Amino acid sequence: MKYKSVFDIIGPIMVGPSSSHTAGAARIGRVARKLFGRMPLRAEIVFYGSFAKTYQGHGSDVATVAGILDFDTSDLRLKNSLVIAEKAGMEVELSTSEVLTEHPNTARIKLSDDEHQIELVGVSIGGGKIEVLEVNGFSFQLGFDTPTLLVLHEDRFGMIAAVAKVLTQHNINVGLMEVSRHTRGSRALMAIETDSTISPEVLEEIRQIPHIFDVSLLAMN
Amino acid sequence: MFRNVAELVELAESQGKKISQVMIEAEMEVSQRSRDAIMQDMYANLDVMEKAVRRGLTEDIRSHSGLTGGDAKKLQTYMETKTFLSGPTLLNAVSMSVAVNEVNAAMGTIVATPTAGACGIVPGTLFAVSDKLQPTREEMVNYLFTAGAIGYCIANNAFISGAAGGCQAEVGSATAMAAAAIVEMAGGTPEESAQAVAIALKNMLGLVCDPVAGLVEVPCVKRNAMGAAIATVAADMAMAGIKSVIPTDEVIDAMYRIGCAMPTTLKETAQGGLAATQTGRMIEAKVFGVRMEK
Fold first, then answer.
1. What's the ipTM?
2. In chain A, which residues have their Cβ closer than 8 Å to the Cβ of B44?
3. Which 8-state DSSP code applies to residue B245?
4. Residues B34-49: what's their mean pLDDT?
5. Interchain pair A20, B31: CB under 8 A
6. Where is the Serine dehydratase-like alpha subunit domain (chain B) (predicted)?
7. pLDDT per residue over B236-247, tens digit each?
8. What are the boundaries of each domain within chain B?
9. pTM of the model as a whole
10. Which domains does chain A have, with CATH numbers?
């Protein structure tokens, strides 16, 4: 079942005009921002398919930037996000691509500052609901509507068990899990949807596991 | 959790509950949240809808492109000054649905029900029918849960976005959702709600998504209007005891198959239908300065 909650159908509360092109775009931008963890200095946005064709009329560009500024879909500042971003010192570069993507509403967002960079591919599947297909080159199919733990680690035996052990000790139930890697033995990214929020202490405990490079938590609500 | 409309009706009737109550309990189970928390979230949606209806009926709304706005007010003036043919509840539903969708096109605040392009129908019918039936605020929130339950079934067995399944999936879904909710608010049974869904959705089958210049305005605002009318009439038909020959879930399945068979030019790409008419192309050139590459 793709849609799990009644609020996927009645909602979100949003600034119009399009749940796919405005609210969905804002949510993709916000997931990128949450993943980056702070205000980026640069945002490179590429629109594909229907996003590329109609973004001006639907405000997909302002919506995506609003998401990167960490605004909600209903935030009235959404309309002025480009000006707000400029004042905040964020450089925005928007382009469109003719490359065919699997879903017509696809956006690729790269956020960076002098120390850090993340890249994400998100699709807007309708009604404001989104899926994240790629994080830093790793493929996924996640909605990010429940807290999602992202663990970047060395691709070797025992890593999943080690992370699962920490979650078990803290009574955190796993709803859905995906592991993606570039090539065998290189780096891998674990994405774990959990039923409850994860405290900073638990995140730190996971961070201490050998062969783990980075741990972040994405929670949209 | 129920998987389709038949299971939803079975759950409701076997437990002697309304569809809205079944939806609330299912949501509590899935989200592990309290009834109170879920109700509060839906009250917040209701408040936003009410503001959008009022704004669309009283303010001079104009969309960014200038293509839409002001039609909801025109209908209200017409109702006040002329002898009109259809009943006041029906015309109010139409006018209020237009009001919300005009606010949406003008980048105002709305609730996606199930999408923004179709956001007028559920609140528009809700407030029009409420004027007649005088429900409590809780009954108004229940209307949204009933609509949501039907939308949930359609979304998981077919689709709710124009890009995926054409306008039948968007305005069509909203119309079916509203029809079921009107029946419940008017005192009909869960089975009558399901019949209203089938009757309403049947009249939306094959509807193409052909936004002019790719915008959620033309023809969407007026399709929200007719969706509200169809929902209201379908609810009355179902409560009169009229049954759909084809069962509700099979109508939803038919909608899914039609959407899959529909060419992409008719699914929100602005490449076919009204978007590809001479005037549609002229508007596109005007809105975007140049004619977009197709």
1. 0.95
2. 13
3. S
4. 98
5. no
6. 15-275
7. 999 999 999 999
8. 3-286
9. 0.92
10. 6-142 (3.30.1330.90), 148-218 (3.30.70.260)
